[in-house]
Task: structure prediction
Amino acid sequence: MNKIMNKKFLENVFPTPDAIPRPHHPGDAIDQRHYLCDGELHFWDGPVEEVFSPVHIADHDDSPPVPFRLGNYPKLGQREAEKALDAACRAYGRGRGAWPAMLVEKRIERVERLLAGMSDCREQVVRLLMWEIGKSRAEAEMEFTRTLEYIDATIAELRNRTCREADLVREQGFAASCRRSPLGVALCLGPYNNPLYETFTTMIPVLLMGNTVIFKPPRLGVLLHHALLPVLRDCFPPGVVNSLYGDGEEVLAPVLKSGRIDLLAFIGSRQVAELLRSWHPAPGRLRCLLGLEAKNAAIVLPDADLEQAAAECALGALAFNGQRCTALKILFVHQQIVTPFLEHLCRQVSSQPVGMPWLPDVRITPLPEPGRVAYLRGLMADARGRGVRIINQGGGEACHTMMTPAVLYPVGPDVRLYHEEQFGPLIPVASFSDPEQPLRYVEESEFGQQVSIFGRDEEKISGMARSLLNQVCRVNINSKCQRGPDSFPFTARRNSAEGTMAVGETLDACSIGSLVVGRENPATQRILAAIAPDLS
Result:
């Protein structure tokens, strides 16, 4: 057993103040008193929400570790929410505002300025990703880099599209200028597990297509947006980007109930998505781009490369503690190989370094969501009460916000972990003799995002993949589930998503096809040429 999985280690995993490396220290607490509305950073002197890190700090005596205080942010109310909405609506001007009417290249220039400004904030944002949500330094840096790369790729895609749209379409004696037009005012809500990436990779395409935005950072991962507010203010005209903070029902309900939101971009739980949509008086008119829950399965066939499959499954189940919608949430392993596979899997799990986010190569870090450890303990208790064993030594140990990964076997339909999305470092394993069993599981699931198949028989894998593509939207062959590359479409069926996210698809999701058309003659061609998209 790796020494980091010892219970004694876990009890002493949290650092004392002097043990925090200076380059990774979060610095002074952030007293955030400003929010962005109508092109200005408004001072807030009302109530605030305190922010504590999932990283606890130990004292040198025997007192228990306590959460590290990071600062606070404004708890805005209905009045501020309505002002943000008014500002966004004025900036859009029913499609006649300066921003939606601006040439594409001019909007791109504003976003390129944003990219430069964001780059200057890199270290502060990365450090807060570590401290606010417990993301490892390596993953925090990757999230920041990937966000900028996604925005850059979106700009390139929009430039290419605009060049293509400059060409007239001629058909059956008609000539047309075709383009994508904005929808209106968008509400963008990102999740806590990727608070920078998921917020900006929806918000920036929305802006590039000419929409105006109100964005609310997630409750966990909110302070990292603080440094970006002045950059957003300086890069966009008044009212084009506005920020909201506070209780969701207090600030989001009046915005949606107004009926003036045209696009909802939300990544989170299905229950919250349904509540948000229900607040809109005309939900059928509300365009939704939703990334929701998933219960992605891995199917390990008897001829699989056990070492490779176990390594991919461990990585897929435990990256960022399993707090990803794309994480592998249940493994189906053929009974002929389940014993050796579990041995390989437990070795992979025991090799995952556990500790604070700044440690080199760390994989298992503190869980940021309040109550998550208690929820995971409840899932384990339910499973163990039904005969399921934790088969990796030291698995499932918890101390405050830290929990060691647990491999649970055998998990069946009577166990909550068989059905519920755990969103944490638990790996339920079920065995099967008939491949129809895991196929039926995917078919009958209320979720439908992805699945992974591990094996060597190309004909068998091809047949399973053809069947599974009618149940999920991505089948991964001998690899874990994931979102990237970002040029690939990312979507799902059933209760797992609505709309498609990717560099090109997101541009389509936040716009609508439109055209100007007339009978083909010199006058029509001159008119169409005058209104064609212009990059200059």
